[in-house]
Structure formats: structure tokens, C-alpha cells
Design a protein that fits this description.
heterodimer, A: MetI-like fold, 2 domains, 15 helices, about 75% helix, globular, B: about 325 residues, mainly alpha, about 0% strand, transmembrane helix (chain A), cell membrane (chain A)
Chain lengths: ~300, ~325
């Protein structure tokens, strides 16, 4: 609303005619700021509290003063978490898996979405619905059969198996959004390329992919977040002999918290929790500009 | 002119006509080339198709088959084919009062949590249009972090915050005059426990909704709102008659997705109850999981899972179809 009164076209009008609504608007704007700041505190509060606790020692955590500052800001808890609790290894495992599977998801998803959105062939709709109906199924249901399939093809407890599963479970959403996005792109450039004799593959990689950039970025972020989030899938898949070296970060965290109840190193747990947020800060730093543009325009056309 | 193979073919009456109408000497070589690669579109979609069929489709079919058998630990270990029991598992589930209690609880939770999330998400998105750019960016960043937090981590944080001995929530509530919340356990009373779970789900769910809806709001033409203001429309009228209709497809999508996600609530309830949810904290997802893996009634768990999906599809079919149609038309 504020932007409206600021636009040159309406300014003389609203200024000349009705000063009162404008004051109302100002109050409303002030209130919205207050409301949003309050909400930001609620949103970020738990995170800040965890950050604070991650610097405390175990005794300080149990002192019963949750908002007291720690005696000293040392990174001991982080060092403990990183090496003693093996969080470091799990962290790298997680990054590795998410990077590869997000890249795979985007490539396969974009190719399939492009074909489904832009080509007419018998069975197109059927395949589209097949893909997208995957959206409606809660993951946990397929866990047991998934376990046996992977065991059967010898991919249980391997990164390859986990990555393939991640890709398969991210594809429905990716295809659903990207197909809609590809449809909304103009057809003329592609037609021109066809006339100039570009192959399908070339059209896809050199014309459609760059044009769909903002959509691709938002779905990439969505997939990174979604796959970073996984807990049940790795629990089921990263089992069997030798899998303890290949656990993911979320499993590591569950391990710490389950291991010994109150004897557990809670400070280590908090440090590990903070470490899970870290990659998102990096992702945000990299994609900052695209997030501003892409997240606000891309995902929803 | 060679629209035959081009993806730009949107007109259904086109293929025959354009073939007749092409200039022979000029287009023919290209057509030959394109015919040679006409399987490329298929090839592009094939890897995705194979993965989904193998790792998503096949497990679901296996689960469906399993639900008509009686797979117990014995069959699992010996590798024998479990006996075929027809609809026995389903009759057993559907005549069980406990199951219906779980269904009612899951539905109620989904309903409440989705309504709260969407209303809050939309309000925050609307508020974000009103504040300055800097504040807006700050909001987006804060929400990105919460959105990016793994459910497991968020649940751990809430578990620790509501801890009966050392939780920060008890500490704060206890500060209120006349309230004694020391060592108060939030999960003795199911209403309190469920409000903790709902708060967690809503807290973690709002960022996605607010960011997406805020993105949608940028698509609302400013001219329309200006015209409405000039015509003396109240903000409420502008919201009801301009913003909401434009935003409707997007709201349908995010609401449908929220329902699907919240209906499958698992991790949060699981972690907050330490991996052993009491009967009053079971949802369809945890119930199916405990039956299958905790009690080794794999077939019963599968039947519950199948019923879960059918229930969800039954309730949501209208919206899911609408969501698909939105994804399709453009």
C-alpha cells in the first residue's frame, strides 16, 4: 500500500484529496513493521537460543539459566562435535550426497519436464500424471520395499543407492514445477532455433536451460533444502556392514541425542545443530541475488 | 515452417497441414534430420522415468501386494513367500477402534495446522509487501534459515525447549506471576502435547508459505490496486476482490502441498516423543511404522499405509486435480 501512494501517478491525487487515509496507511505500515519484527523474533528466537547454548559447557546448560551468556566463547564444543562425535565426517558425507543428488535431480528433472511441457506425443499426459502423483505419497510408506530393492541390487549402505533414491524422491516436485515453468516460456526463440536446424538436445541445453534460469534456481534451492532435510531415507538405506562410516549429518545428530539421554553431551548436540544450518548460509551467500529474484518470481512463474 | 516435430506445435490441427504446405527442396533435408532424432524427446525423459518407476513406483506396488499377504518376522527371516490373505489385513484395520482414533487425530491435526499455517503465511506475505525493502530482505533471510532447518533438527530444538527440567519454555512460563511450571511436563496432557507439536509444525511451515505467497503477491498488478484505492475500496475489499482471486491458484497449490506434508507427519511426533510415541501421540504415519517395524506386522503396516493414501486422495482429490490443472494450463 505504501508503494501505491509513492507512485508518481497517484501522489497528487491522494495528497490533494484524502490526507486521512494516508495517515491511516502510515499507522498501518508502522504496525506491520512491529508485527513483522515480533514475528521475526519468534521465528529466529529458537535458533538464536541454540546458537547461545552451543557455546556453553554441559554444566552451564544444566544450570537453569537459559539466557545467561556462557562463561567464555570457546569453540571447544564445535571441535568436540566435529571430531569426537564424528560430525565432521557425517557433515562431509551429507554435503557430498546433497551436491550430487541435487545436480542429478535438476538435470533429469529439467529434461523430463522440458519434454513433457513442450512436446506432444502419445502418453505424454499419462507420464506427467505418473510423475506428479509421486507428490501425493508420503515417503515412509515405501521404506520397507525400498530396503529390499536396494539390498537386492547391492546398493544398500552405499552413497550411489542413497543418491539414486534422493533423486527419485525429489523428481515429482521438480517436474511438477519445472513443467509449468517451461510452459510459460515464449515459444518463438525455440521455433527460430528449430528452423535453424538445432537438434533437440542443443535446443534444450543452449536455449531452454538459460531461459529457465530463474525457475531452475528456485527449484535447485528447494531441492537442496529438501534433501539436506532427509532423515528417514538415510536411516533405512545407510544400514548394513560398513555403513557407520557413511552416516549423514541428521543421523549423526540423532545418534548423539539418543546415545545417553541426560549423560549425553548436550553442548555437542547444540554445536552439531548449528553446523546443520551452516551450509544454508553458504547456499544463501552464493545464490543471494537469484534468491531475491528467483524465489520471488521463479517458483510461481 | 517445419512445425511437425517442433515443440511449438500447440495447434492440434497442425501436423497434416504443415506437411502438405512445406516447400519441398528447402525443408526436406532438415525434416529427414529431425525424423532421425525424433526419439530424443523420449530419451530425455527416460532416465527420470526409470528412476521413478524403479525406486518410487515399484516399492509402492510391492507395498500394495504386501498388504494382501501376511508377512511376519518368520517369513521375513526365512525368505518364504508370505501367505495370501486377501482383505484380512484391511478388515482387521478397519474394524479396529484404535485405528479410527488415529485417523481422527491425524485429520484434526492436519486441518488445524494447515489453516493456521496458511492464514499466518498469507498475513505475513501481505505484511511483507508493506514494509521497506531492507526489512523484507531481513525477513526472507530469517525465514530461509528456519525453512532450511531439517525437521529432525527443528524437532530436537523443540524437544529441548520443552524439556520438563531444563526447558526454556518452562523457565519462561514459570516467570509469569502465579504460575508454577517448574518441572512441568508438556506431554502428559495430550492437548498440551499436541499444541507443542502443532506449534513446531506451523513454525517450520510458515516460511515456505510466506516466501512463496510473497512471490505470488509481486505478480498482482499494481495498477489494479491503485485503481481500487482511487475508487475508494477499503484494504479489506482490495484483498477479497483483487488479491485473493489472483492468488487463488497459488494458494491452492501451497495448501494442497501443506495438507500432503502435514498429513504424513512423522519426524516431529517421533522425535518429540523420543521414538516411542504414546497412543495419544500416534499419527497415521507413526502408527503404520510402529505396526510394521516395531511389532513386525509388515502387512498390517502396509495396509494402514495404503488406507492412509486412499483417505488422503479421497479428501484431496478435488484439490489435487485442481493443482495438476494449474500446473498444466498456461
Amino acid at each position: 500500500m505504501t508503494t501505491i501512494t509513492k507512485t508518481p501517478g497517484t501522489k497528487p491525487l491522494s495528497a490533494g484529496r484524502a490526507p486521512e487515509p494516508k495517515r491511516d496507511l502510515k499507522i498501518a505500515t508502522g504496525l506491520s513493521h512491529v508485527a513483522l519484527v515480533a514475528w521475526a523474533l519468534i521465528t529466529a528466537g529458537p535458533l538464536l537460543w541454540v546458537l547461545l547454548a552451543s557455546f556453553k559447557s554441559n554444566t552451564e546448560i544444566f544450570l537453569g539459566k537459559p539466557f545467561a551468556l556462557p562463561n567464555s566463547f570457546s569453540f571447544d564444543t564445535y571441535v568436540n562435535a566435529w571430531s569426537d562425535a564424528h560430525i565432521g565426517r557425517y557433515f562431509i558425507n551429507s554435503v557430498f550426497v546433497v551436491v550430487i543428488s541435487t545436480a542429478g535431480t535438476m538435470l533429469l528433472g529439467a529434461m523430463a519436464a522440458y519434454v513433457l511441457a513442450r512436446y506432444k506425443f502419445p502418453g505424454n499426459r499419462a507420464i506427467y500424471y505418473l510423475f506428479v502423483s509421486g507428490l501425493a505419497f508420503p515417503t515412509f510408506m515405501a521404506l520397507a520395499p525400498l530396503f529390499y530393492i536396494l539390498k537386492g541390487i547391492g546398493l544398500l549402505g552405499s552413497f550411489t543407492g542413497l543418491i539414486l533414491v534422493y533423486i527419485a524422491y525429489s523428481l515429482p516436485f521438480t517436474i511438477f514445477f519445472l513443467a509449468a515453468f517451461f510452459k510459460s516460456l515464449p515459444y518463438e526463440i525455440e521455433e527460430a532455433a528449430t528452423v535453424d536446424g538445432a537438434s533437440h538436445i542443443r535446443k534444450f541445453f543452449q536455449i531452454m536451460m538459460p531461459m529457465a534460469r530463474s525457475g531452475l534456481v528456485s527449484i535447485t534451492i528447494f531441492n537442496i533444502v529438501g534433501q539436506w532435510n532427509q532423515y528417514l531415507l538415510p536411516v533405512v538405506i545407510m544400514s548394513g556392514p560398513g555403513a557407520d562410516q557413511k552416516l549423514l549429518l541428521t543421523q549423526g545428530i540423532a545418534q548423539i541425542s539418543v546415545s545417553a539421554g541426560y549423560q549425553a553431551e548436550w553442548s555437542t548436540l547444540f554445536a552439531a545443530l548449528v553446523l546443520t544450518i551452516l551450509p544454508m548460509i553458504i547456499v544463501y551467500a552464493i545464490f543471494q541475488r537469484q534468491i531475491q529474484a528467483g524465489l520471488t518470481a521463479g517458483a510461481v512463474k | 515452417m517445419s512445425v511437425v516435430d517442433s515443440p511449438a506445435t500447440r495447434r492440434p490441427d497442425d501436423p497434416g497441414r504443415s506437411q502438405q504446405g512445406r516447400v519441398p527442396g528447402h525443408v526436406a533435408p532438415k525434416r529427414r534430420r529431425q525424423r532421425g532424432s525424433s526419439s530424443t524427446p523420449w530419451l530425455l525423459a527416460l532416465p527420470a522415468l526409470l528412476l521413478i518407476a524403479g525406486l518410487l513406483g515399484y516399492p509402492l506396488i510391492r507395498m500394495l501386494v504386501l498388504s494382501f499377504q501376511n508377512m511376519r518376522l518368520r517369513e521375513l527371516l526365512s525368505g518364504r513367500t508370505p501367505p495370501w490373505v486377501g482383505f484380512d489385513q484391511y478388515t482387521r484395520v478397519l474394524t479396529d477402534g484404535v485405528f479410527w482414533a488415529v485417523v481422527g487425530r491425524t485429520v484434526a491435526f492436519t486441518f488445524v495446522s494447515v489453516i493456521i499455517s496458511v492464514v499466518f503465511g498469507l498475513s505475513i506475505a501481505l505484511l511483507m509487501r508493506r514494509v521497506t525493502r531492507g526489512v523484507r530482505m531481513f525477513m526472507v533471510v530469517a525465514m530461509m534459515f528456519v525453512w532450511a532447518l531439517p525437521q529432525l533438527v527443528a524437532a530436537q530444538i523443540f524437544r529441548w525447549m520443552t524439556d520438563s527440567d531444563f526447558g526454556v519454555v518452562n523457565y519462561l512460563v514459570d516467570k509469569l506471576p502465579g504460575v508454577d511450571y517448574q518441572n512441568h511436563s508438556w506431554f502428559v496432557n495430550p492437548w498440551q502435547g499436541w499444541s507443542v507439536i502443532t506449534t513446531l509444525v506451523v513454525w517450520a511451515g510458515i516460511p515456505f508459505l510466506a516466501i512463496t505467497l510473497n512471490a505470488g503477491l509481486t505478480q498482482v498488478p499494481k495498477e489494479l490496486l491503485e485503481a481500487a484505492t482511487v475508487d475508494g475500496a477499503t484494504p479489506w475489499q482490495a484483498l477479497r476482490n483483487i488479491i485473493l482471486p489472483i492468488l487463488k491458484p497459488l494458494i491452492t497449490i501451497v495448501t494442497t502441498l501443506s495438507v500432503i506434508w502435514n498429513f504424513g507427519l512423522f519426524t516431529q511426533a517421533w522425535v518429540l516423543r523420543d521414538g516411542h510415541p504414546e497412543p495419544q501421540f500416534q499419527t497415521l504415519a507413526t502408527y503404520s511404522y510402529t505396526q510394521a517395524f516395531g511389532q513386525s506386522r509388515y502387512s498390517l503396516g502396509s495396509a494402514i499405509a495404503v488406507i492412509t493414501v486412499l483417505l488422503m486422495l479421497g479428501v484431496m482429490i478435488f484439490y489435487i486435480r485442481q493443482m495438476f490443472r494449474i500446473g498444466e494450463v498456461d
